[in-house]
Structure formats: structure tokens, C-alpha cells
Amino acid sequence: MDRLRDIYSDEIPAAKILTATDPEALTVLGSMQDMPKVPRWHRGRMVLVGDSAHAPSSSSGQGASMAVESAVELARCLRDIPAPEAAFTAYERLRRARVEKVIDRGAKANTTKTLGPFAKTMMRLTLPILTRTLLNPNEP
Ligand SMILES: Cc1cc2nc3c(=O)[nH]c(=O)nc-3n(C[C@H](O)[C@H](O)[C@H](O)COP(=O)(O)OP(=O)(O)OC[C@H]3O[C@@H](n4cnc5c(N)ncnc54)[C@H](O)[C@@H]3O)c2cc1C
């Protein structure tokens, strides 16, 4: 938290949010992990789109396309439904199931990208031999 507060000390509203955040409440995620589900995507005149509503792990490679899809769907809902709150409700109803499915699929694919203990041991044992023989860049 000290590091974050230092890095974002000049950023608005990040500095304010970090000052008000209890370090115990901080969620730290690696590149293979998804952000927890956001229970509500809108309230009053406020609506979330893109990573703020649905951030998959960066390794899944899905976040940017989902952000664009959600932006287009939100624009459609605002175009077709005059009351903003009703438009936001329709937008969440149309998008939530799809993004959660994509995030779940990405999480399943991520499990195949990480090596299990057996594969890790085999890699550690065989890689030095392979780099000296088959994968040796100096060998023709
Ligand atoms: C390492 C890494 C690799 C990734 N690889 C992929 C990939 O291969 N394929 C893929 O589809 N996705 C990938 N993603 C995810 C993708 O980058 C995001 O899902 C996507 O950028 C989300 O778009 P967004 O518009 O919601 O948010 P962002 O792109 O984060 O845009 C938010 C913008 O708001 C600005 N901002 C923040 N606060 C304020 C403020 N107070 N005032 C004004 N502006 C503000 C920020 O500076 C930022 O420009 C990757 C992410 C990471 C971190």
C-alpha cells in the first residue's frame, strides 16, 4: 500500500481512494487471476463499462474485446431506451452472462498455461540437457 500511495500520489482520484483504503481490504492479483465479480454495474446516473465492470486476467487476452463489446451494447441501450437507469439495467442484463462465461472460459484456459508440479520438475531436469543438445543454437 505504501508503494501504491507513492506511485499514485499525483493521480486523481487514485490518491484519494488509496488514502481511504484499508490495507487489509486490498485485493492483489497476478496476471493469471480474474478480478472478483462486481455485484452491481450501475447505480443512479453512474454506470461501469470495460475493466471496471468485468476485468478478466490479463493472460486470458479477452479484456479489450469485451470492453469494446460492452461499450457498443451500452451505446445501443442508451440509443433505444430513453430513461438512463432503464438503459443501464438492460445493458447489464444483455452483457453480464456473456462476460462471465468468457471470463470462466479464460480461467479454464489459464490452467493449461501453468505447469503442474510433475511438469515443472521434468522441465527443470530436461531443459539444461535440451539446451546443450537439441535446442543448442550453435549446432547446425
Ligand atoms: C499486461 C496486460 C496484458 C493484456 N493483454 C491483453 C490482450 O492480449 N488482449 C486483450 O483483449 N486484453 C488484454 N489486456 C486487458 C486490456 O488491456 C483491458 O481489458 C482493457 O484495456 C480494458 O479497457 P478499459 O477501457 O475498460 O480500461 P483501460 O484501458 O484501463 O482504460 C481506462 C482509462 O481511463 C484512464 N483514467 C483512469 N482514471 C481516470 C481519471 N480519473 N480521469 C481520466 N481518465 C482516467 C486511464 O488512464 C486509462 O487510459 C491486458 C492487460 C494487461 C494489464
Hetero ligands: flavin-adenine dinucleotide
- Biggest β-sheet, characterized? 2 strands, antiparallel
CATH topology of the largest domain: FAD/NAD(P)-binding domain
Return the CATH architecture of the largest domain.
3-Layer(bba) Sandwich
How do the SSEs run, as a string of H and E? HHEEHHH
Q: Mind telling me the CATH superfamily name of the largest domain?
A: FAD/NAD(P)-binding domain
Structural class per helix/strand content?
mainly alpha
Q: How confident overall, as mean pLDDT?
A: 91
Binned strand content: under 5%
Verbal overview:
- The protein is mostly helical and 140 residues long.
- It has 2 domains: 1-30, no CATH class; 35-114, FAD/NAD(P)-binding domain (3-Layer(bba) Sandwich).
- It has 5 helices and 2 strands.
- The chain has helices at 2-7, 14-20, 63-80, 84-113, 117-132; strands at 42-43, 46-47.
- It has a two-stranded antiparallel sheet with strand order 1-2.
- The longest helix is centred in the last third of the chain and has 30 residues, at 84-113.
- It starts with a helix and ends in an 8-residue tail after the last helix.
- Bound molecules: flavin-adenine dinucleotide.
- Residues 12-13, 50-51, 58, 61-65, 67 line the site of flavin-adenine dinucleotide (FAD).
